[in-house]
Prior knowledge:
Blueprint: H1 16-39, H2 41-48, H3 52-59, H4 61-69, H5 71-78, H6 83-101, H7 107-121, H8 124-135, H9 138-167, H10 170-176, H11 187-206, H12 226-235, H13 237-269, H14 273-301, H15 305-328, H16 332-345, H17 348-360, H18 366-382, H19 384-396, H20 402-433
Helix pairs in contact: 1-8, 1-9, 1-11, 1-13, 3-19, 4-7, 4-18, 5-8, 5-18, 6-7, 6-11, 8-18, 9-14, 9-17, 13-17, 13-18, 13-19, 13-20, 14-15, 14-16, 15-16, 15-17, 15-20, 19-20
Amino acid sequence: MHNPVEAGEEHYRRGYWHTVAxxxxxxxxGFLDRALLPYIAEPIKNDFGITDLELSFLLGAAFVVLYxxxxxxxxxxxxxxxxxxxTACGVFGWSWMMILSSFSKSYWQLFAGQIGLGIxxxxxxxxxxxxxxxxxxxxxxGRAVGIYSLVSLNFGTGLAGLYVGVLSSDGARQVFGGIxxxxxxxxxxxxxxxxxxxxxxxSALALTVREPRRDRAHAPKPPAGLKEAxxxxxxxxxVYTALLGSMIFANLAATGWxxxxxxxxxxxWLTSSSSIGTALGTLQLVLGSLGALGLGFFMDRTKRAAxxxxxxxxxxxxxxxxxxxxxxxxxxxxxxxxVGVRCLFSGGASIVSIIVLTRVxxxxxxxxxxxxxxxxxxxxxxxxxxxxxxxxxxxxFSSPPAIANALILLYPVFMALSIGCLxxxxxxxxxxxxxxxx
Length: 438
């Protein structure tokens, strides 16, 4: 396997934590935007008169398909132009799509808005990985990725729940009811409107990132094309294939869970959107953040890619147990406790994928390869997760908790496949470290 030579400490400018902070905040807004729909799914379903299957396309495919497809050309651009400018343009574009989505009068208008949101957010994955690799020295990269994952995923999804909880309250309705432009909007439309306004401000924040110099001393060739990328992938196929499989199956499980959990709790326990958002948001914000920091810390303690994967395997095995408890629990208090425990261990696959990618991918291939990687993860994992649950619920179960039963069936299967792929990746890396063919 080709291990790109890391640059010396002198290559990395001071102030790289500012880059990590801005990328994390921008990604946090992106995760908040995409995490809002599950909390407002029931009112949208009622307003537009759609089925669970149609709702699943809105929760998954509408955003993800073009989001995934465009990560490859965005990765190509990330290897060739100023990445902070590219980030600012993406944030500006997706924020306007959020604002337009808030005025949707039909299912298809909202569907189109989610497609536009995905187009704008496609900028971030390849750009963020490329900037972290070129800005952050290897000794701090695990913490940087942990912070990025913590703030983007955990703060983003956690704040989404808290935000929905606040905006769904009677007091918030009274506050916004007097504003002429917003007077006719329903609560779920207001939920989509304000993050779009915030995003316009965040697009300016992205311009404060200093573009790091690319490591030409250790990667003397110009940004690579698809032919060179294909050659590198062929030489390291076992590692990339296993890592990709792990992420796809983990995301099938995670997106199905995240998309349908608020609806499952609402239908089973008759809990309001405000209460669900506040509870889930608080758990994700506090315990999810602690979990991401802890996983990043343990992954930083190991100097080997194999050790990083071992941490992810342990976390992935543990999280399955509280997930099933939450879906089977006879009491809502037990549900919240189990969801909290799950939050501590649910970030392993996403963190390890970024760390291993930065360790095995040459710098001049980083943009295009991460773009292709996230394309497949998003199209095969994120887009299909909510719909897989809806299809199984429709075909295999007829009673009211059909969605919950489908999650109980699918989640452990997807996670078992993800863990198996992590073991395969670990085996490939150990063979290559020992100099054996792969």
